[in-house]
Amino acid sequence: TAAGAGGGGALRIASGTRVVLRGGSLLARGGRGGTANLGTGGGGGSGGVIYIAAPEVDLESGTVDVRGGNGGGGGSSGAPGGNGGLGRIRLSVDPLFCNINAVTSPPTTCDDGVATPGRGYVGRYPN
Fold first, then answer.
1. Which of 52, 56, 44, 49 is nearest to 27 (CA)?
2. Is the Cβ–Cβ distance between 64 and 21 less than 8 Å?
């Protein structure tokens, strides 16, 4: 059996005024599971968490990604490892000053004020 991968970790960005993302990447992705020569592949690491808190958040362009890692390949007599679970994106922002045009995984919009599986969550600043 191959080794499982590490989780995506955590990234917290907080400002008393404004956070802007233009063309960059914020990543907390899980690692890929190990590949087995014989036996079962290792499991992918779970996605991490990205938390952004500011009165104004402008994710103008770029990527915010917390996907889990892929499972590793199994050997000739084993199954592949399972994929890691999806991580979380959490924003704390004044709804009047929220803009999300970046590519987000899981999908996240300024209207995501209810905790929903497979989606980001946006709460009212400073909560």
1. 49
2. yes
The pLDDT tens digits for 21-57 are 999 999 999 999 999 988 899 999 999 999 999 999 9
Residues 6+ apart with CB under 8 A from 84: 5, 7, 30, 31, 33, 43, 44, 45, 46, 47, 67, 68, 69, 70, 71
What is the chain's percent helix, strand, coil content, to nearest 5? 0, 35, 65
Cα dihedral 18, 19, 21, 22, rounded to 10, equals 30
**pLDDT digits 0-9 by tens, 110-123:** 999 999 999 999 99
Is residue 8 within 8 A of residue 44, CB to CB? The reply is no
One-character DSSP codes across 80-92: PPPPPPP-EEEEE
Residue 46 tokens read as 């779970």
Residue 46 phi, psi (nearest 5): -70, 155
